[in-house]
TrEMBL record:
Organism for this UniProt entry: Lihuaxuella thermophila
Chain ranges passing through the membrane: 12-34, 54-73, 85-107, 127-145, 152-174, 180-202, 214-234, 254-274, 295-315, 335-356, 363-383, 389-408, 420-442, 448-469
Cellular component GO terms held in the UniProt record: plasma membrane
Keyword Cell cycle part of the UniProt annotation: no
Name of this chain's protein: Membrane protein involved in the export of O-antigen and teichoic acid
């Protein structure tokens, strides 16, 4: 058993190389785009097009990538595995190609509606959708490589298509002055190029057989995942669209910049997400597993919130250096909202760990669906009045709904003492103090650092005042660590 668990962790770490490398590369290259997409609304239009390609990806893949993770091992032999793989790629890429053709035929009127009549965008959707065909092929083929445990091929080509596409896009944006179109020209060349190379490398894995039976298996397994993906899309994408259409292009630009810099917290949370699922499953049969889960959940909320608070103290100069544009200067005020939302999204896998153990993931999906509906309604009400404040506030509210939902249903299926009352009290204190920090920064109050020090001290005191942790429980954390290295 130990050797399988060790392999699981080592594989997770190996595959994380590409994930972290891609996110880091995107973070380092983003300031170049910020400094050259200076036209009114261009950042917003970049983000808007990305949201359209994301929903297109979900609709075309239809969960068949997740289904392949099951049927790769469930297939009776290598030939059947290849049939599943071939049908998944052809179906997904074919659907996306069909949408690309429709976008080409209707490109001009679509661009007129979507991009508020701006000129030069009649080919944007066809180019972006055709680039997505390449991305879908890459996603399927690299998934197949991952299941085959071809670690370095997965890492090399994952990074090649992301970094390569970005570098080509930079050429078009910086040297050809192609604006938003330049970004997607780069993606078109980079993603289709890598897709063709991967198809050639894996050519023996494709078989000349289209099977309705195998395709129906893939869709039947994967399609139920679509509501969760759509819910996540609503919560991460629709805010910027509502800002673009109902408020102004400038606000959409600022929000896009904030989204980009707030996403940097993923560089910190991604390693935990990769490690948590195998770790939590590997200890589920231990008698003290619920105690460990409780400690991890509470420790993560404390460590994450304090880290975001400390970052907020110095976010303005970091933001200004990263963005490099005076017209987007106020965006630093909103970064902590979206960062906290990302933290809550990570926490739902901890507070809902019992639902994962009991294989009741549909309850998690239902929670995201409810949160997405609340988010969408809230955005339509708040954004026209409060603009970006409405969007970022609804992000926090929506993810809090997810956390509360998964906790309630987790306790019915696999009780864990998270001291959830203390967690909610701690979060309420945290939100109150963070709003105060934001007010100090907005008003440019004198002696801001004095308030920062008081806020940090109060937040640390609240850890013990709410009984989220006691000195005894802190000692327990140290005592659990050596046990985790023992027999499981």
């Amino acid at each position: 058993m130990r050797q399988y668990i060790k392999r699981l962790f080592s594989d997770s770490a190996a595959f994380a190389v590409a994930t972290m490398g891609n996110k880091l590369a995107a973070a380092l290259l983003a300031p170049i785009f910020f400094r050259h997409l200076t036209g009114a609304g261009q950042l917003g239009e970049w983000g808007l097009t990305n949201t359209l390609t994301l929903i297109l990806t979900y609709l075309c893949i239809l969960g068949t990538d997740a289904a392949m993770a099951f049927y790769f091992y469930d297939a009776k032999d290598q030939q059947e595995r290849r049939i599943y793989f071939t049908n998944a790629v052809i179906f997904s890429a074919g659907m996306c190609l069909l949408f690309s053709i429709l976008a080409y035929v209707w490109g001009a009127p679509l661009a007129e509606i979507i991009f508020k009549g701006k000129e030069g965008y009649h080919l944007l959707l066809p180019v972006a959708f055709l680039a997505t065909v390449g991305a879908i092929v890459i996603q399927h083929v690299l998934g197949y490589a991952r299941y085959s445990r071809r670690v370095w091929l997965f890492n090399i080509f994952s990074m090649a298509y992301v970094i390569g596409s970005n570098l080509i896009s930079i050429y078009f944006v910086v040297f050809e002055n192609a604006g938003v179109m330049g970004i997607f020209y780069g993606q078109l060349i980079g993603q289709l190029g890598v897709a063709l190379i991967l198809v050639w490398i894996f050519r023996r894995e494709f078989v000349p057989k289209l099977s309705r039976k195998h395709l129906s298996h893939l869709i039947a397994y994967g399609a139920p995942l679509l509501p969760t993906l759509l819910s996540f899309w609503v919560m991460t994408s629709t805010g910027r669209q509502i800002l673009y259409y109902m408020v102004s292009q400038t606000h959409a630009d600022i929000y896009e910049a904030v989204m980009r810099i707030a996403s940097l917290i993923v560089l910190v949370t991604a390693p935990f997400q990769l490690a948590w699922r195998p770790f939590s499953m590997s200890i589920k049969d231990r008698e003290d597993a619920p105690q460990i889960y409780g400690l991890v959940g509470r420790a993560l909320i404390v460590a994450g919130t304090l880290a975001i608070m400390l970052l907020t103290f110095v976010i303005e100069p970091i933001y200004q250096l990263y963005i490099g544009r005076k017209d987007l200067a106020t965006g630093y005020l909103y970064v902590w909202f979206l960062s906290f939302g990302t933290l809550l999204n990570v926490l739902h896998t901890v507070f809902g760990v019992g639902l994962l153990i009991k294989k009741k993931t549909k309850l998690i999906s239902r929670g995201f669906l409810i949160a997405a509906v609340v988010y969408l309604i809230g955005c339509f009400i708040l954004i026209p009045v409060f603009h970006i404040w409405g969007a970022v506030s609804m992000t926090v509210i929506a993810y809090l709904i997810v956390i509360i939902w998964v906790y309630m249903h987790n306790q019915k299926n696999y009780p864990v003492d998270f001291r959830f009352g203390s967690v909610l009290t701690y979060i309420a204190i945290y939100l109150f103090l963070m709003v105060g920090i934001t007010w100090v920064q907005m008003t440019e109050a004198e002696h801001a650092w004095l308030y920062y020090g008081i806020a940090l001290a109060l937040q640390i005191v609240s850890v013990f005042a709410t009984k989220l942790f006691t000195l005894k429980s802190l000692n327990q954390i140290g005592s659990f660590l050596p046990k985790l290295g023992g027999k499981r």
